[in-house]
Design goal:
Elements: H1 5-55, H2 59-68, E1 77-79, E2 85-88, H3 111-119
Antiparallel strand pairs: 1-2
Helix pairs in contact: 1-2
């Protein structure tokens, strides 16, 4: 079946290229996984440090601080070891952080860039 040198070389090149691509894809996956994990860990550490510094040593103030916390991309939960929720923050609506005129313009409209520039 593989009597021709051309067919054998093509099969070898294809196999080597496939292995190289698979190894590179796995390496990129691991790299992105590590970077994202570090970013998430840092964001969680930064948020928890901010909350603890704001609340101070009093537990009742910690609960109130968590309830008042607003962020567009996360929600805080203070839980006991058995999983009971003591306090939780409400997720802020994205519209609170963006000028309302952005939502009135269609994405294909050229006025979007002007509205976004004015908001900044």
């Amino acid at each position: 079946m593989f009597r021709s040198i051309r067919v054998r070389l093509t099969a070898w090149y294809t196999a080597v290229l496939a292995v190289v691509l698979i190894v590179m894809a796995f390496g990129m996956y691991r790299l992105v996984d590590r970077v994202l994990e570090r970013r998430i860990d840092f964001a969680l550490f930064e948020t928890s440090t901010t909350i603890l510094n704001t609340a101070g040593p009093r537990p009742d103030r910690l609960i109130e601080t968590i309830r008042r916390y607003r962020a567009p991309d996360r929600r805080l939960l203070l839980m006991t070891r058995d999983g009971r929720v003591i306090a939780e923050s409400e997720p802020a609506q994205f519209r609170e952080f963006v000028d309302s005129r952005v939502f009135e313009v269609s994405p294909s409209d050229s006025a979007v860039l002007a509205v976004v520039r004015r908001v900044r």
